[in-house]
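Entry for S-adenosyl-L-homocysteine complex. Fields follow.
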Amino acid sequence: MIGLIAATAAGRQAAERLTQAWPDTRRYEGPAAVALPRAFSECDAIVCFLAVGATVRLLAPLLAGKRSDPGVVCVDEALRYAVPVVGAHAGGANELARKVALVLGGEAVITTASDAAGSVALDEFGADVGFAVEPGSDLAAVGAAILSGERVTLSADATWPLPPLPPNVVSGPPEPGVPAIIVSDRTDVPGHPGHPGLSASGGLAVVYRPPSLVIGIGASRGVPAAEVSTLIGEALADAGLSPRSVRLAATVDLKADEVGLLAAVRGRDWPLAMFPAAELAAVPVPNPSETVRIAVGTPSVAEAAALLAARAGAPAGPFHSAPSSPNSPNSPNRPNRPSRPGEPELVVAKRVSAHATVAIARARPRGRLAIVGIGPGARDLMTPRAAAELRRASVVVGLDQYVDQVADLFRPGTRILATGLGHEQERAATAVSEAAAGRAVALIGSGDAGVYAMGSPALELADETIDVISVPGVTASLAAAALLGAPLGHDHALISLSDLHTPWEAIERRITAVAEADLVACFYNPASRGRSWPLRKALAILAVCRPPETPVGWVRDASRPGEAVSASTLAAFDPAGVDMRTLVIVGSSRSAMVAGRMVTPREYRWAAPS
Ligand code: SAH
Protein backbone atom coordinates (compact mmCIF):
# COMPACT_ATOMS: atom_id res chain seq x y z
CA MET A 1 0.00 0.00 0.00
CA ILE A 2 1.13 3.53 -0.80
CA GLY A 3 0.54 6.18 1.89
CA LEU A 4 -0.24 9.74 0.77
CA ILE A 5 0.49 12.73 2.99
CA ALA A 6 -0.45 16.27 2.04
CA ALA A 7 -0.28 19.47 4.04
CA THR A 8 -1.63 22.02 1.55
CA ALA A 9 -4.64 22.36 -0.74
CA ALA A 10 -2.49 21.78 -3.85
CA GLY A 11 -0.97 18.71 -2.22
CA ARG A 12 -4.38 17.34 -1.31
CA GLN A 13 -5.60 17.80 -4.89
CA ALA A 14 -2.55 16.01 -6.26
CA ALA A 15 -2.98 13.23 -3.69
CA GLU A 16 -6.53 12.85 -4.95
CA ARG A 17 -5.21 12.37 -8.50
CA LEU A 18 -2.90 9.60 -7.30
CA THR A 19 -5.81 8.00 -5.46
CA GLN A 20 -7.79 7.93 -8.67
CA ALA A 21 -4.87 6.59 -10.70
CA TRP A 22 -3.88 3.81 -8.31
CA PRO A 23 -6.11 1.41 -6.42
CA ASP A 24 -3.70 0.71 -3.59
CA THR A 25 -3.33 4.08 -1.86
CA ARG A 26 -4.34 5.44 1.51
CA ARG A 27 -4.63 9.09 2.58
CA TYR A 28 -3.18 10.00 5.97
CA GLU A 29 -4.90 13.14 7.22
CA GLY A 30 -3.89 15.43 10.06
CA PRO A 31 -0.56 17.05 10.87
CA ALA A 32 2.39 15.53 9.01
CA ALA A 33 4.20 14.98 12.32
CA VAL A 34 1.51 12.45 13.21
CA ALA A 35 0.58 11.19 9.74
CA LEU A 36 4.10 10.37 8.53
CA PRO A 37 5.09 8.05 11.42
CA ARG A 38 1.77 6.21 11.02
CA ALA A 39 2.19 5.81 7.29
CA PHE A 40 5.81 4.76 7.83
CA SER A 41 4.74 1.84 10.01
CA GLU A 42 1.80 0.78 7.81
CA CYS A 43 2.82 1.31 4.17
CA ASP A 44 5.26 -0.15 1.63
CA ALA A 45 5.87 3.30 0.22
CA ILE A 46 4.90 6.92 0.90
CA VAL A 47 4.37 9.99 -1.24
CA CYS A 48 4.73 13.24 0.76
CA PHE A 49 3.50 16.53 -0.66
CA LEU A 50 5.94 18.28 1.63
CA ALA A 51 9.34 19.93 1.39
CA VAL A 52 12.28 17.51 1.44
CA GLY A 53 13.71 19.25 4.52
CA ALA A 54 10.52 18.89 6.54
CA THR A 55 10.21 15.27 5.48
CA VAL A 56 13.80 14.45 6.42
CA ARG A 57 13.31 15.87 9.92
CA LEU A 58 10.21 13.75 10.46
CA LEU A 59 11.80 10.64 8.96
CA ALA A 60 15.10 10.76 10.82
CA PRO A 61 13.97 9.06 14.04
CA LEU A 62 12.00 6.43 12.09
CA LEU A 63 14.74 5.07 9.83
CA ALA A 64 15.76 1.46 10.50
CA GLY A 65 17.61 0.29 7.36
CA LYS A 66 17.38 0.45 3.60
CA ARG A 67 16.14 -3.12 3.31
CA SER A 68 13.20 -2.60 5.65
CA ASP A 69 12.24 1.08 5.38
CA PRO A 70 9.41 2.00 3.02
CA GLY A 71 10.46 4.11 0.05
CA VAL A 72 9.60 7.79 0.53
CA VAL A 73 9.07 10.26 -2.32
CA CYS A 74 8.62 14.02 -1.85
CA VAL A 75 6.70 16.13 -4.35
CA ASP A 76 7.04 19.92 -4.46
CA GLU A 77 4.08 22.28 -4.20
CA ALA A 78 4.08 23.01 -7.96
CA LEU A 79 4.17 19.26 -8.76
CA ARG A 80 7.27 19.72 -10.89
CA TYR A 81 9.53 17.24 -9.13
CA ALA A 82 9.18 13.83 -7.49
CA VAL A 83 12.24 13.21 -5.32
CA PRO A 84 13.02 9.78 -3.83
CA VAL A 85 14.33 10.61 -0.35
CA VAL A 86 14.94 7.18 1.18
CA GLY A 87 14.55 3.60 0.00
CA ALA A 88 15.54 4.33 -3.60
CA HIS A 89 16.12 0.67 -4.52
CA ALA A 90 14.84 -1.82 -1.94
CA GLY A 91 12.02 0.55 -0.93
CA GLY A 92 11.10 1.15 -4.56
CA ALA A 93 11.27 4.96 -4.21
CA ASN A 94 13.06 5.55 -7.53
CA GLU A 95 10.39 3.55 -9.34
CA LEU A 96 7.61 5.24 -7.40
CA ALA A 97 9.02 8.70 -8.19
CA ARG A 98 8.95 7.86 -11.90
CA LYS A 99 5.32 6.74 -11.63
CA VAL A 100 4.32 9.82 -9.64
CA ALA A 101 5.99 12.02 -12.27
CA LEU A 102 4.08 10.18 -14.98
CA VAL A 103 0.70 10.72 -13.30
CA LEU A 104 1.28 14.32 -12.18
CA GLY A 105 3.21 15.40 -15.26
CA GLY A 106 6.44 16.30 -13.43
CA GLU A 107 9.92 14.89 -13.43
CA ALA A 108 11.57 12.27 -11.22
CA VAL A 109 14.80 13.52 -9.62
CA ILE A 110 16.96 10.42 -9.23
CA THR A 111 20.11 10.85 -7.17
CA THR A 112 21.41 7.30 -6.66
CA ALA A 113 24.71 6.87 -8.49
CA SER A 114 24.15 3.53 -10.19
CA ASP A 115 20.92 4.73 -11.78
CA ALA A 116 22.54 7.89 -13.03
CA ALA A 117 25.23 5.80 -14.74
CA GLY A 118 22.58 3.54 -16.28
CA SER A 119 23.98 0.54 -14.46
CA VAL A 120 22.56 -1.96 -12.02
CA ALA A 121 22.70 -1.34 -8.27
CA LEU A 122 24.62 -4.22 -6.71
CA ASP A 123 22.19 -4.64 -3.83
CA GLU A 124 19.46 -5.35 -6.39
CA PHE A 125 21.61 -7.36 -8.82
CA GLY A 126 19.97 -10.71 -9.53
CA ALA A 127 17.23 -10.02 -6.98
CA ASP A 128 14.50 -10.90 -9.48
CA VAL A 129 16.24 -14.21 -10.22
CA GLY A 130 16.36 -14.97 -6.48
CA PHE A 131 19.96 -14.10 -5.62
CA ALA A 132 20.76 -13.52 -1.95
CA VAL A 133 23.69 -11.31 -0.97
CA GLU A 134 26.14 -13.10 1.33
CA PRO A 135 26.49 -11.05 4.52
CA GLY A 136 29.90 -9.42 4.75
CA SER A 137 29.92 -8.62 1.04
CA ASP A 138 31.54 -5.29 0.20
CA LEU A 139 28.51 -3.95 -1.69
CA ALA A 140 29.32 -0.27 -1.44
CA ALA A 141 33.02 -0.55 -2.21
CA VAL A 142 32.60 -2.91 -5.19
CA GLY A 143 29.71 -0.79 -6.46
CA ALA A 144 31.92 2.30 -6.27
CA ALA A 145 34.70 0.45 -8.10
CA ILE A 146 32.32 -0.41 -10.94
CA LEU A 147 31.09 3.18 -11.21
CA SER A 148 34.60 4.58 -11.27
CA GLY A 149 35.50 2.31 -14.18
CA GLU A 150 37.97 0.11 -12.29
CA ARG A 151 38.57 -3.47 -13.35
CA VAL A 152 36.21 -5.81 -11.51
CA THR A 153 35.96 -9.57 -12.08
CA LEU A 154 32.72 -11.52 -12.33
CA SER A 155 32.76 -15.27 -11.85
CA ALA A 156 29.70 -17.45 -11.77
CA ASP A 157 29.47 -21.21 -11.55
CA ALA A 158 26.51 -21.20 -13.92
CA THR A 159 25.03 -18.77 -16.44
CA TRP A 160 22.09 -16.92 -14.85
CA PRO A 161 19.74 -14.59 -16.75
CA LEU A 162 21.22 -11.41 -15.31
CA PRO A 163 21.14 -7.85 -16.58
CA PRO A 164 24.43 -6.63 -18.05
CA LEU A 165 27.20 -5.02 -16.04
CA PRO A 166 29.40 -2.33 -17.62
CA PRO A 167 32.40 -3.41 -19.70
CA ASN A 168 34.91 -2.78 -16.90
CA VAL A 169 33.38 -5.83 -15.19
CA VAL A 170 35.16 -8.73 -16.90
CA SER A 171 34.20 -12.38 -16.74
CA GLY A 172 36.83 -14.50 -15.07
CA PRO A 173 38.12 -15.86 -11.78
CA PRO A 174 38.91 -13.48 -8.91
CA GLU A 175 42.35 -11.87 -9.09
CA PRO A 176 44.37 -10.75 -6.08
CA GLY A 177 43.70 -7.12 -5.24
CA VAL A 178 40.93 -6.78 -7.85
CA PRO A 179 37.34 -6.31 -6.64
CA ALA A 180 35.34 -9.44 -7.39
CA ILE A 181 31.71 -10.34 -7.94
CA ILE A 182 31.08 -14.02 -7.31
CA VAL A 183 27.91 -15.95 -8.05
CA SER A 184 28.16 -19.35 -6.44
CA ASP A 185 26.33 -21.80 -4.23
CA ARG A 186 29.70 -23.03 -2.97
CA THR A 187 31.29 -21.85 0.27
CA ASP A 188 34.81 -22.75 -0.77
CA VAL A 189 35.24 -20.38 -3.71
CA PRO A 190 38.04 -17.84 -3.52
CA GLY A 191 36.63 -14.46 -2.67
CA HIS A 192 34.09 -15.86 -0.28
CA PRO A 193 34.33 -13.85 2.92
CA GLY A 194 36.43 -15.93 5.24
CA HIS A 195 38.12 -17.82 2.42
CA PRO A 196 41.87 -17.34 2.60
CA GLY A 197 42.29 -17.00 -1.17
CA LEU A 198 41.22 -13.48 -1.89
CA SER A 199 40.32 -11.74 1.32
CA ALA A 200 43.83 -12.42 2.61
CA SER A 201 45.22 -10.38 -0.27
CA GLY A 202 43.00 -7.46 0.64
CA GLY A 203 40.53 -7.85 -2.24
CA LEU A 204 36.96 -6.71 -2.08
CA ALA A 205 34.21 -9.12 -2.96
CA VAL A 206 30.46 -9.32 -3.33
CA VAL A 207 29.18 -12.88 -3.16
CA TYR A 208 25.71 -13.75 -4.45
CA ARG A 209 23.96 -16.97 -3.55
CA PRO A 210 21.87 -18.13 -6.50
CA PRO A 211 18.72 -20.17 -5.73
CA SER A 212 20.23 -23.33 -7.17
CA LEU A 213 19.85 -26.06 -4.55
CA VAL A 214 16.99 -28.36 -3.64
CA ILE A 215 17.11 -30.55 -0.52
CA GLY A 216 15.29 -33.87 -0.77
CA ILE A 217 14.24 -35.30 2.58
CA GLY A 218 12.96 -38.73 3.60
CA ALA A 219 12.01 -39.61 7.15
CA SER A 220 10.47 -42.40 9.18
CA ARG A 221 7.61 -41.89 11.66
CA GLY A 222 8.40 -39.74 14.67
CA VAL A 223 11.71 -38.34 13.41
CA PRO A 224 12.92 -35.49 15.67
CA ALA A 225 13.28 -32.08 14.00
CA ALA A 226 16.80 -31.71 15.35
CA GLU A 227 17.88 -34.93 13.61
CA VAL A 228 16.60 -33.74 10.21
CA SER A 229 18.11 -30.33 10.71
CA THR A 230 21.51 -31.71 11.70
CA LEU A 231 21.55 -34.10 8.75
CA ILE A 232 20.76 -31.25 6.34
CA GLY A 233 23.40 -29.02 7.93
CA GLU A 234 26.05 -31.73 7.64
CA ALA A 235 25.14 -32.57 4.05
CA LEU A 236 25.49 -28.94 3.02
CA ALA A 237 28.66 -28.29 5.01
CA ASP A 238 30.48 -31.46 3.90
CA ALA A 239 29.72 -30.68 0.26
CA GLY A 240 30.80 -27.05 0.69
CA LEU A 241 27.35 -25.72 -0.22
CA SER A 242 25.68 -22.59 1.13
CA PRO A 243 22.29 -22.91 2.84
CA ARG A 244 21.47 -19.49 1.35
CA SER A 245 21.37 -21.13 -2.07
CA VAL A 246 18.61 -23.54 -1.09
CA ARG A 247 15.44 -22.61 -2.96
CA LEU A 248 13.24 -25.45 -1.83
CA ALA A 249 12.97 -28.63 0.22
CA ALA A 250 11.07 -31.60 -1.16
CA THR A 251 9.63 -34.88 0.07
CA VAL A 252 6.89 -37.42 -0.57
CA ASP A 253 3.28 -36.35 0.12
CA LEU A 254 2.90 -39.14 2.69
CA LYS A 255 5.05 -36.98 4.98
CA ALA A 256 2.63 -34.05 4.92
CA ASP A 257 1.99 -34.59 8.63
CA GLU A 258 5.49 -35.59 9.72
CA VAL A 259 5.95 -33.00 12.46
CA GLY A 260 9.74 -33.20 12.84
CA LEU A 261 10.36 -32.94 9.10
CA LEU A 262 7.99 -29.99 8.75
CA ALA A 263 9.52 -28.20 11.74
CA ALA A 264 13.06 -28.63 10.41
CA VAL A 265 12.08 -27.16 7.04
CA ARG A 266 10.05 -24.34 8.58
CA GLY A 267 12.92 -23.55 10.91
CA ARG A 268 15.02 -22.70 7.88
CA ASP A 269 12.24 -20.77 6.17
CA TRP A 270 12.31 -22.95 3.06
CA PRO A 271 9.21 -23.79 1.05
CA LEU A 272 8.42 -27.52 0.93
CA ALA A 273 7.33 -29.34 -2.23
CA MET A 274 5.56 -32.67 -1.92
CA PHE A 275 5.22 -35.31 -4.62
CA PRO A 276 3.10 -38.49 -4.78
CA ALA A 277 5.13 -41.70 -4.39
CA ALA A 278 4.24 -42.76 -7.95
CA GLU A 279 5.87 -39.63 -9.40
CA LEU A 280 8.99 -40.15 -7.31
CA ALA A 281 9.15 -43.80 -8.36
CA ALA A 282 9.52 -42.69 -11.98
CA VAL A 283 12.67 -40.65 -11.30
CA PRO A 284 15.92 -42.52 -11.99
CA VAL A 285 18.22 -42.26 -8.95
CA PRO A 286 21.69 -43.61 -8.12
CA ASN A 287 20.72 -45.18 -4.77
CA PRO A 288 17.30 -46.85 -4.89
CA SER A 289 16.17 -48.96 -1.94
CA GLU A 290 13.89 -51.99 -2.10
CA THR A 291 12.96 -51.58 1.59
CA VAL A 292 11.82 -48.02 0.97
CA ARG A 293 9.89 -49.11 -2.12
CA ILE A 294 7.95 -51.69 -0.11
CA ALA A 295 7.25 -49.21 2.72
CA VAL A 296 6.49 -46.02 0.76
CA GLY A 297 5.81 -47.09 -2.84
CA THR A 298 8.92 -45.47 -4.34
CA PRO A 299 12.49 -46.80 -4.18
CA SER A 300 13.75 -43.30 -3.39
CA VAL A 301 12.36 -40.31 -1.52
CA ALA A 302 15.28 -37.96 -0.81
CA GLU A 303 17.15 -38.31 -4.12
CA ALA A 304 14.03 -38.54 -6.27
CA ALA A 305 12.29 -35.59 -4.56
CA ALA A 306 15.41 -33.42 -4.82
CA LEU A 307 15.83 -34.18 -8.53
CA LEU A 308 12.14 -33.81 -9.34
CA ALA A 309 11.75 -30.49 -7.51
CA ALA A 310 14.93 -29.16 -9.09
CA ARG A 311 13.62 -30.13 -12.52
CA ALA A 312 10.29 -28.43 -11.94
CA GLY A 313 12.01 -25.07 -11.86
CA ALA A 314 9.52 -23.47 -14.21
CA PRO A 315 7.38 -20.69 -12.77
CA ALA A 316 3.70 -21.47 -12.55
CA GLY A 317 1.72 -20.49 -15.64
CA PRO A 318 -0.67 -21.87 -18.18
CA PHE A 319 2.05 -23.16 -20.47
CA HIS A 320 4.41 -24.57 -17.88
CA SER A 321 3.23 -28.13 -17.77
CA ALA A 322 4.40 -30.71 -15.29
CA PRO A 323 8.01 -31.78 -15.75
CA SER A 324 8.35 -34.25 -18.58
CA SER A 325 8.12 -37.86 -17.55
CA PRO A 326 11.38 -39.73 -17.35
CA ASN A 327 10.31 -41.96 -20.21
CA SER A 328 9.68 -39.09 -22.61
CA PRO A 329 12.14 -38.76 -25.48
CA ASN A 330 13.71 -35.77 -23.73
CA SER A 331 14.84 -37.64 -20.67
CA PRO A 332 15.86 -41.22 -21.26
CA ASN A 333 15.95 -43.55 -18.33
CA ARG A 334 19.50 -42.85 -17.25
CA PRO A 335 20.46 -41.36 -13.90
CA ASN A 336 22.00 -37.94 -13.72
CA ARG A 337 22.26 -37.29 -17.42
CA PRO A 338 23.97 -33.91 -17.49
CA SER A 339 23.69 -33.26 -21.22
CA ARG A 340 20.38 -31.44 -21.37
CA PRO A 341 20.67 -27.89 -20.09
CA GLY A 342 17.43 -28.00 -18.11
CA GLU A 343 18.29 -31.19 -16.24
CA PRO A 344 19.32 -31.00 -12.59
CA GLU A 345 22.32 -32.85 -11.18
CA LEU A 346 22.51 -34.69 -7.90
CA VAL A 347 25.31 -32.98 -5.96
CA VAL A 348 24.90 -34.87 -2.69
CA ALA A 349 23.76 -38.49 -2.90
CA LYS A 350 21.57 -39.94 -0.17
CA ARG A 351 22.92 -39.46 3.38
CA VAL A 352 21.29 -41.41 6.15
CA SER A 353 20.76 -40.96 9.90
CA ALA A 354 18.68 -43.12 12.24
CA HIS A 355 15.29 -41.78 11.04
CA ALA A 356 16.04 -39.51 8.09
CA THR A 357 17.61 -39.33 4.64
CA VAL A 358 18.79 -36.24 2.80
CA ALA A 359 20.03 -35.64 -0.75
CA ILE A 360 20.81 -32.41 -2.60
CA ALA A 361 20.19 -31.57 -6.25
CA ARG A 362 21.37 -28.54 -8.19
CA ALA A 363 18.89 -27.00 -10.62
CA ARG A 364 20.07 -25.54 -13.90
CA PRO A 365 19.28 -21.85 -14.32
CA ARG A 366 16.49 -21.10 -16.77
CA GLY A 367 17.35 -18.57 -19.44
CA ARG A 368 14.97 -15.73 -20.16
CA LEU A 369 13.77 -14.79 -23.63
CA ALA A 370 11.83 -11.54 -23.88
CA ILE A 371 10.07 -11.04 -27.22
CA VAL A 372 9.68 -7.30 -27.38
CA GLY A 373 7.58 -5.19 -29.74
CA ILE A 374 9.13 -1.73 -29.92
CA GLY A 375 6.14 -0.10 -31.61
CA PRO A 376 5.83 1.53 -35.04
CA GLY A 377 8.61 4.07 -34.59
CA ALA A 378 7.94 6.97 -32.23
CA ARG A 379 9.52 6.47 -28.82
CA ASP A 380 6.34 7.39 -26.96
CA LEU A 381 4.47 4.64 -28.79
CA MET A 382 6.79 2.07 -27.22
CA THR A 383 5.34 0.68 -23.99
CA PRO A 384 7.22 1.29 -20.72
CA ARG A 385 7.30 -2.49 -20.30
CA ALA A 386 9.13 -2.90 -23.60
CA ALA A 387 11.69 -0.30 -22.54
CA ALA A 388 12.15 -2.10 -19.20
CA GLU A 389 12.79 -5.41 -21.00
CA LEU A 390 15.41 -3.79 -23.23
CA ARG A 391 17.20 -2.66 -20.07
CA ARG A 392 16.75 -6.04 -18.39
CA ALA A 393 18.47 -8.04 -21.16
CA SER A 394 22.19 -8.71 -21.38
CA VAL A 395 21.85 -9.78 -25.02
CA VAL A 396 19.70 -7.97 -27.59
CA VAL A 397 18.92 -9.66 -30.91
CA GLY A 398 17.21 -7.90 -33.80
CA LEU A 399 17.23 -6.37 -37.23
CA ASP A 400 20.00 -3.75 -37.37
CA GLN A 401 17.71 -0.82 -38.11
CA TYR A 402 15.40 -1.61 -35.17
CA VAL A 403 18.34 -2.18 -32.82
CA ASP A 404 19.74 1.24 -33.79
CA GLN A 405 16.36 2.80 -33.13
CA VAL A 406 16.40 1.80 -29.45
CA ALA A 407 20.14 1.47 -28.73
CA ASP A 408 20.14 4.45 -26.35
CA LEU A 409 18.00 2.42 -23.95
CA PHE A 410 20.41 -0.48 -23.48
CA ARG A 411 22.52 -0.62 -20.34
CA PRO A 412 26.27 -0.35 -20.72
CA GLY A 413 27.67 -3.82 -21.35
CA THR A 414 24.68 -5.13 -23.33
CA ARG A 415 25.79 -7.53 -26.09
CA ILE A 416 24.12 -6.58 -29.37
CA LEU A 417 23.57 -9.21 -32.06
CA ALA A 418 22.12 -7.32 -35.01
CA THR A 419 21.71 -8.71 -38.51
CA GLY A 420 20.33 -7.37 -41.76
CA LEU A 421 17.11 -8.06 -43.63
CA GLY A 422 16.41 -11.63 -44.62
CA HIS A 423 18.10 -13.28 -41.63
CA GLU A 424 14.92 -13.90 -39.61
CA GLN A 425 15.53 -17.60 -39.04
CA GLU A 426 19.09 -16.98 -37.96
CA ARG A 427 18.00 -14.24 -35.54
CA ALA A 428 15.37 -16.50 -34.02
CA ALA A 429 17.88 -19.34 -33.61
CA THR A 430 20.48 -17.02 -32.08
CA ALA A 431 18.02 -15.57 -29.57
CA VAL A 432 16.78 -18.99 -28.52
CA SER A 433 20.25 -20.51 -28.16
CA GLU A 434 21.47 -17.52 -26.11
CA ALA A 435 18.48 -17.98 -23.79
CA ALA A 436 18.99 -21.74 -23.69
CA ALA A 437 22.52 -21.03 -22.46
CA GLY A 438 20.91 -19.30 -19.48
CA ARG A 439 21.16 -15.65 -20.50
CA ALA A 440 18.60 -12.83 -20.43
CA VAL A 441 17.83 -12.12 -24.07
CA ALA A 442 15.58 -9.53 -25.72
CA LEU A 443 14.48 -10.36 -29.25
CA ILE A 444 13.05 -7.22 -30.75
CA GLY A 445 10.64 -6.55 -33.56
CA SER A 446 8.98 -3.39 -34.84
CA GLY A 447 5.32 -2.88 -34.03
CA ASP A 448 4.28 -6.04 -32.26
CA ALA A 449 6.97 -8.72 -32.33
CA GLY A 450 4.34 -11.43 -32.76
CA VAL A 451 2.72 -9.89 -35.88
CA TYR A 452 4.58 -10.90 -39.08
CA ALA A 453 7.73 -10.79 -36.98
CA MET A 454 10.16 -12.71 -34.78
CA GLY A 455 7.77 -14.10 -32.17
CA SER A 456 6.63 -17.19 -34.05
CA PRO A 457 9.97 -18.33 -35.52
CA ALA A 458 11.51 -18.00 -32.05
CA LEU A 459 8.75 -19.89 -30.27
CA GLU A 460 8.83 -22.64 -32.87
CA LEU A 461 12.40 -23.27 -31.74
CA ALA A 462 12.16 -22.60 -27.98
CA ASP A 463 11.68 -25.59 -25.68
CA GLU A 464 10.32 -25.70 -22.14
CA THR A 465 13.68 -25.13 -20.47
CA ILE A 466 13.58 -21.37 -20.98
CA ASP A 467 11.21 -18.70 -19.70
CA VAL A 468 9.53 -16.62 -22.38
CA ILE A 469 8.10 -13.17 -21.75
CA SER A 470 6.28 -11.41 -24.59
CA VAL A 471 5.71 -7.67 -24.53
CA PRO A 472 2.99 -6.53 -26.92
CA GLY A 473 3.65 -3.51 -29.11
CA VAL A 474 1.56 -1.07 -31.13
CA THR A 475 1.33 -2.84 -34.46
CA ALA A 476 1.43 -0.92 -37.77
CA SER A 477 -2.30 -1.34 -38.42
CA LEU A 478 -3.15 0.36 -35.11
CA ALA A 479 -0.66 3.16 -35.67
CA ALA A 480 -1.96 3.71 -39.21
CA ALA A 481 -5.61 3.43 -38.20
CA ALA A 482 -5.14 6.08 -35.51
CA LEU A 483 -3.78 8.46 -38.14
CA LEU A 484 -6.57 7.72 -40.61
CA GLY A 485 -9.49 7.99 -38.18
CA ALA A 486 -11.34 4.95 -36.91
CA PRO A 487 -11.22 2.49 -39.83
CA LEU A 488 -10.99 -0.56 -37.53
CA GLY A 489 -14.20 0.21 -35.65
CA HIS A 490 -15.68 -3.10 -36.71
CA ASP A 491 -14.46 -6.52 -37.84
CA HIS A 492 -11.23 -6.48 -39.78
CA ALA A 493 -8.50 -8.75 -41.06
CA LEU A 494 -4.73 -8.42 -41.28
CA ILE A 495 -3.19 -9.80 -44.45
CA SER A 496 0.42 -9.84 -45.53
CA LEU A 497 0.93 -9.53 -49.27
CA SER A 498 4.44 -10.97 -49.07
CA ASP A 499 4.61 -14.20 -51.02
CA LEU A 500 8.11 -14.92 -49.73
CA HIS A 501 6.89 -17.51 -47.23
CA THR A 502 3.28 -18.01 -48.36
CA PRO A 503 2.28 -19.12 -51.89
CA TRP A 504 0.35 -16.42 -53.73
CA GLU A 505 -2.61 -18.78 -54.28
CA ALA A 506 -3.08 -19.02 -50.50
CA ILE A 507 -2.88 -15.25 -50.11
CA GLU A 508 -5.42 -14.80 -52.88
CA ARG A 509 -7.82 -17.29 -51.26
CA ARG A 510 -7.65 -15.32 -48.02
CA ILE A 511 -8.28 -12.00 -49.76
CA THR A 512 -11.30 -13.52 -51.50
CA ALA A 513 -12.65 -14.69 -48.14
CA VAL A 514 -12.10 -11.21 -46.67
CA ALA A 515 -13.89 -9.69 -49.64
CA GLU A 516 -16.85 -12.01 -49.27
CA ALA A 517 -17.04 -11.49 -45.50
CA ASP A 518 -16.99 -7.70 -45.98
CA LEU A 519 -14.14 -7.28 -43.50
CA VAL A 520 -11.98 -4.17 -43.39
CA ALA A 521 -8.60 -5.29 -44.80
CA CYS A 522 -5.20 -4.15 -43.48
CA PHE A 523 -2.43 -4.99 -45.94
CA TYR A 524 1.04 -5.47 -44.49
CA ASN A 525 4.03 -5.82 -46.84
CA PRO A 526 1.91 -4.29 -49.63
CA ALA A 527 4.73 -4.00 -52.14
CA SER A 528 6.36 -7.35 -51.73
CA ARG A 529 9.92 -7.22 -53.06
CA GLY A 530 9.27 -3.89 -54.75
CA ARG A 531 6.38 -5.18 -56.89
CA SER A 532 3.01 -3.50 -56.85
CA TRP A 533 1.03 -6.25 -58.63
CA PRO A 534 0.06 -8.09 -55.44
CA LEU A 535 -1.65 -4.96 -54.12
CA ARG A 536 -3.32 -4.26 -57.49
CA LYS A 537 -4.59 -7.81 -57.54
CA ALA A 538 -5.81 -7.59 -53.92
CA LEU A 539 -7.71 -4.36 -54.62
CA ALA A 540 -9.30 -5.92 -57.72
CA ILE A 541 -10.57 -8.86 -55.66
CA LEU A 542 -12.05 -6.54 -53.02
CA ALA A 543 -13.62 -4.33 -55.71
CA VAL A 544 -15.78 -7.25 -56.84
CA CYS A 545 -17.72 -7.12 -53.56
CA ARG A 546 -17.37 -3.44 -52.55
CA PRO A 547 -18.61 -0.19 -54.08
CA PRO A 548 -16.06 1.89 -56.01
CA GLU A 549 -16.32 4.72 -53.44
CA THR A 550 -15.13 2.43 -50.61
CA PRO A 551 -12.41 4.40 -48.80
CA VAL A 552 -8.79 3.24 -49.01
CA GLY A 553 -6.33 4.76 -46.55
CA TRP A 554 -2.61 4.36 -46.58
CA VAL A 555 0.11 5.45 -44.22
CA ARG A 556 3.81 5.47 -44.94
CA ASP A 557 6.22 5.50 -41.99
CA ALA A 558 3.55 5.88 -39.34
CA SER A 559 5.03 7.75 -36.35
CA ARG A 560 8.45 7.92 -38.03
CA PRO A 561 10.20 10.86 -39.67
CA GLY A 562 8.61 11.46 -43.09
CA GLU A 563 5.23 10.11 -42.01
CA ALA A 564 2.68 10.43 -44.82
CA VAL A 565 -1.05 9.82 -44.53
CA SER A 566 -3.45 9.68 -47.44
CA ALA A 567 -6.91 8.47 -48.34
CA SER A 568 -8.60 7.65 -51.61
CA THR A 569 -11.25 5.26 -52.93
CA LEU A 570 -11.15 1.78 -54.39
CA ALA A 571 -11.83 3.29 -57.82
CA ALA A 572 -9.25 6.07 -57.66
CA PHE A 573 -6.44 4.66 -55.51
CA ASP A 574 -3.10 4.30 -57.29
CA PRO A 575 -0.88 1.62 -55.71
CA ALA A 576 2.20 2.97 -57.50
CA GLY A 577 3.11 5.20 -54.53
CA VAL A 578 2.98 2.33 -52.06
CA ASP A 579 6.19 0.74 -50.80
CA MET A 580 7.34 -1.68 -48.11
CA ARG A 581 7.13 0.98 -45.41
CA THR A 582 3.44 1.53 -46.06
CA LEU A 583 0.33 0.03 -44.56
CA VAL A 584 -2.86 0.03 -46.62
CA ILE A 585 -6.34 -0.14 -45.09
CA VAL A 586 -9.31 -0.85 -47.35
CA GLY A 587 -12.68 -0.12 -45.77
CA SER A 588 -15.65 -2.49 -45.69
CA SER A 589 -18.74 -1.64 -47.73
CA ARG A 590 -19.94 0.32 -44.67
CA SER A 591 -16.79 2.43 -44.17
CA ALA A 592 -16.98 6.10 -45.14
CA MET A 593 -15.05 9.34 -45.02
CA VAL A 594 -16.45 11.71 -42.40
CA ALA A 595 -14.91 15.20 -42.28
CA GLY A 596 -11.78 13.85 -43.94
CA ARG A 597 -11.47 10.90 -41.57
CA MET A 598 -11.95 7.24 -42.40
CA VAL A 599 -14.66 5.69 -40.23
CA THR A 600 -16.05 2.17 -40.08
CA PRO A 601 -19.34 2.29 -38.15
CA ARG A 602 -19.87 -0.09 -35.28
CA GLU A 603 -23.37 -0.85 -36.48
CA TYR A 604 -24.65 -1.99 -33.14
CA ARG A 605 -28.08 -0.94 -32.18
CA TRP A 606 -27.22 1.03 -29.08
CA ALA A 607 -29.52 -0.04 -26.31
CA ALA A 608 -31.53 2.90 -24.95
CA PRO A 609 -30.93 3.33 -21.22
CA SER A 610 -33.90 1.86 -19.39
N1 SAH B 1 5.69 -6.53 -36.64
C1 SAH B 1 5.30 -5.39 -37.44
C2 SAH B 1 5.01 -5.77 -38.88
C3 SAH B 1 6.19 -6.28 -39.64
S1 SAH B 1 5.83 -6.63 -41.31
C4 SAH B 1 4.11 -4.71 -36.81
O1 SAH B 1 3.50 -5.26 -35.89
O2 SAH B 1 3.81 -3.59 -37.22
C5 SAH B 1 6.42 -5.17 -42.08
C6 SAH B 1 5.28 -4.37 -42.65
O3 SAH B 1 4.59 -3.69 -41.63
C7 SAH B 1 5.73 -3.28 -43.60
O4 SAH B 1 5.89 -3.78 -44.92
C8 SAH B 1 4.56 -2.30 -43.54
O5 SAH B 1 3.51 -2.76 -44.31
C9 SAH B 1 4.14 -2.43 -42.09
N2 SAH B 1 4.73 -1.39 -41.21
C10 SAH B 1 5.53 -1.59 -40.17
N3 SAH B 1 5.81 -0.43 -39.57
C11 SAH B 1 5.16 0.53 -40.21
C12 SAH B 1 5.03 1.95 -40.05
N4 SAH B 1 5.65 2.59 -39.07
N5 SAH B 1 4.26 2.62 -40.93
C13 SAH B 1 3.59 1.97 -41.91
N6 SAH B 1 3.67 0.63 -42.11
C14 SAH B 1 4.45 -0.07 -41.28
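NOTE: Confidence is low (pLDDT under 50) at residues 196-201, 314-339.
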